[in-house]
Amino acid sequence: MKGIRMSGVPKNWSVVLALFLIATLMVSCDCGTEPPPPNDGPDSTSHDFTWRQDTLGDRTYQSIPQGIWGSAPDNVYAVGHSSSYVTGKIWHWDGLTWTDISIKYTEALPGESLLFTPAAAFGFGSNDVWIAGYRDTTYPPQPIKQGFVMHYDGTKWHGVSPPNAQNLYAMWGSSSSDMWVGGINGGLHHFNGSVWEDYTVADSIWIESFAGMLNGRLIAGGLSHNDTTGRTYYHLLEWDGVTWQVSESVLDDGAGTPFYVNVQVIGGQLYSPSYQSVMRRVTTGSWQTVFSDPQNTFLDVGGDAANNLFVVGWSGVIYHFDGNEWIHYDQFSNAKVDNLGIWVGGGHVFITSEEIFSQGSPWPKSFIIRGAPKSGG
Question: Which of 47-51, 127-131, 138-142, 167-171 has the lowest mean pLDDT?
Answer without folding.
Answer: 138-142
